[in-house]
Design a protein that fits this description.
The structure is a single chain. The chain is mainly alpha-helical. The protein has helices at residues 10-23, 27-36, 42-49, 51-55, 68-73.
Length: 75
């Protein structure tokens, strides 16, 4: 992951900060999700935040349980 700096108008920063607080995610995560998601509203936002959504359908022969933390959290 790369770090970058952006400049936001005060009003937009406050709007994002408030939304991140309500969604209980960091502003960085909220911005990443907004940049990655297709137009689709909150449903798309929730789907991208769900770590289980990323691993859905990859279970093959019980192999997921041995590496569940790695698959869910990247550890």
């Amino acid at each position: 992951m790369k770090r970058t700096t952006i400049f936001l108008p005060d009003e937009l920063h406050e709007q994002l900060r408030g939304e991140a607080f309500r969604e209980r995610v960091s502003m960085a995560q909220l911005i990443r999700v907004r940049l990655e998601r297709p137009a689709g509203g909150k449903k798309a936002f929730r789907r991208l935040l769900d770590p289980l959504e990323r691993v859905e359908g990859i279970i093959q022969h019980g192999g997921l349980s041995a590496r569940i933390d790695e698959e869910l959290y990247g550890n």
